[in-house]
Amino acid sequence: MSTMEILVATAEREVYSGLATMLVAPGAAGELGIMPKHSPLLAALNPGELRIINGDDVDEVFISGGFMEVQPDKITILADTAERAADMDEAEIIAAQRRAEEVLSSNNGDTDLAMAEAELALMTARLLVLKKYKK
């Protein structure tokens, strides 16, 4: 079975590096499934789950958005933030989600509602990926 190299990185660190038989990514225009020997492609990515599949093994990585470059034998993902589902802390995610909800409900004039809404959406997406991983 043919494989391709996968690299997931942020500005701070390399989050994942390995081989895969398929990658599923949250593209801005919908979910993208990429297999080895795919035509070159550049794509914007939305927050969500990367599924890195190698035979029966599946690694899940949460990204908060970014860009993907596809070459026939290599995929590079540059994400704003990224973390493996196995490394996520559910209590931390729930606490951040509650803080964002509190900021939205307080609705005082000093609050940046757009930032609080974005944070709430991001924490909700992280929690969904974590719950899916735990199943």
Could you explain how this protein is built, in words?
This protein has two helices and ten strands. It has 135 residues and is α+β, with helices and mostly antiparallel strands. It folds into two domains: 82 residues, F0F1 ATP synthase delta/epsilon subunit, N-terminal (ATP Synthase, domain 1); 46 residues, Up-down Bundle (Single alpha-helices involved in coiled-coils or other helix-helix interfaces). α1 runs antiparallel to α2. The radius of gyration is 16 Å and the shape is elongated.
Secondary-structure blueprint of this entry?
Elements: E1 4-9, E2 14-20, E3 22-27, E4 30-34, E5 41-45, E6 48-54, E7 57-63, E8 66-71, E9 74-79, E10 82-84, H1 90-106, H2 113-134
Parallel strand pairs: 1-9
Antiparallel strand pairs: 1-2, 3-4, 3-6, 5-8, 6-7, 7-10, 8-9
Short description:
Helices cover 29% and strands 43% of the residues.
Radius of gyration from the alpha-carbon trace, in angstroms? 16 Å
Question: Helical proportion?
Answer: 25-40%
Distance between the termini: 28 Å
Label the CATH architecture of the largest domain: Sandwich
CATH class of the largest domain: Mainly Beta
Biggest beta sheet attributes: 5 strands, mixed
What name is given to the CATH topology of the largest domain? ATP Synthase, domain 1
* Number of distinct helices: 2
| Class by SSE composition | alpha+beta
| Rough outline | elongated
- The count of β-strands is 10
The total number of structural domains is 2
Q: What is the strand content?
A: 35-45%
H/E series, N to C?
EEEEEEEEEEHH
